[in-house]
Amino acid sequence: MTSLSVRQAGSARQAAHAGGRIPGAGPGRWAVLAALVVLAVVMLFPFVIVTLNAVKTPAEYSSNGPLSLPHGIYLDGIIEFWNRVDFGRKLLNSLLISGAVAVLAVALSVLNAYAIGIGRVRGRLWILVLFLVANTLPQEALAYPLYYLSKEVGLYDSRLAVILIFTVVQGAFGTYLLSAVLGDFPKEIIEAAAMDGASRWRVLWRIVVPISSPTLSVLMIFFFIWTWNEFFLPLIFLISNDNQTVPVALGVLQGDKMMDATMSSASALLGIVPAVAFFLIFQRTLTRGVTVGAIK
Fold first, then answer.
1. In the chain, which ranges are continuous DSSP H helix?
2. Average pLDDT in the 38-53 region?
3. Does 1.10.3720.10 match the CATH number of domain 88-249?
4. pLDDT at residue 6 in the model
5. Among 21-30, 192-201, 218-227, which stretch is predicted with the lowest mean pLDDT?
6. Domain boundaries in the chain?
7. Mean of the per-residue pLDDT values of the chain
8. Span 148-157, average pLDDT
9. In this structure, are residues 112 and 271 in contact, taking their beta carbons and an 8 Å threshold?
10. Beta-carbon contacts of residue 80 (< 8 Å; ≥ 6 apart)
11. Minimal CA–CA distance to 130: which of 190, 161, 171, 166?
12. What is the pLDDT of residue 223?
């Protein structure tokens, strides 16, 4: 009787699959999918509006409004804004600062977290509390001390000053995060490497870093994007036109009387496209790192 019931249940499952029904498919699943589609449309709508207005003529914008479709591709606003602010130099400055901060902050975070999470230095808890407090400080509270210090050491109005500042700021968050990750690192692997004669430096770069590479990749991507979008501190420390970043150039020109609506949309589009392109290029790396972290 038991074997007959098992065969009947198997036949029922095969009939259900043959009928085209997907296991787990139901109203709840379709509702979640519909909600995600609506959310994606809402998120992409401003980007589409900015793109449409960036390729309109000022006359089309004045007569038809911001929600109308352009009659053609008008690139004069984009070209004029690019030439007016020397956007190529601003783009290079942002790439240099964001890339340097991403690499240096991850390296600093790894070194700090290795000592705190695996090395188990004395006062580990209080050090982590210190890093946590550093993450909660607003940038407005750091502006004057950092301004005074950069003036004293001769780094004011230089890209190096911004790189050093954001390396420390981002490194504080990275240290706090990686300390928790490396605190759960398998001790057996480190002990086996130590028994084979590996030094602490070799254990770090040959064992800890390769195993933690998905997490480090995600952290590097976030550091790059966060630094790219920074506006307040670069506005204070980069006063020369040749040193300014993309967000600073966009913010400074928003009050320019020579900027019409189409040129403002062109400036917003040029400011968004590099960050979106960077995210799309490293999307697979980001997804892989988040997935590995969730599985662990």
1. 2-18, 27-54, 58-64, 76-85, 87-113, 124-136, 139-153, 159-183, 187-195, 200-203, 209-211, 213-228, 232-237, 246-252, 261-281, 283-295
2. 90
3. yes
4. 45
5. 21-30
6. 88-249
7. 82
8. 93
9. no
10. 263, 266
11. 171
12. 94
* Across 249-261, average pLDDT: 69
- What does the block give as tokens for 164? 């050093």
Q: Give the whole-angstrom CA distance, residue 249 versus residue 253.
A: 6
Q: Could you give the CA distance from residue 34 to residue 36 in angstroms, rounded to a whole number?
A: 5
- Locate tokens 């259900």: which residue? 16
C-alpha 208/C-alpha 114 separation (Å) is: 8
Tokens standing for 70?
């352009």
Task: Give the Å distances, CA to CA, from 214 to 86, 171, 208, 282.
Answer: 37, 17, 11, 12
pTM for the model stands at 0.81
Q: How far apart are CA 58 and CA 54, in angstroms?
A: 10
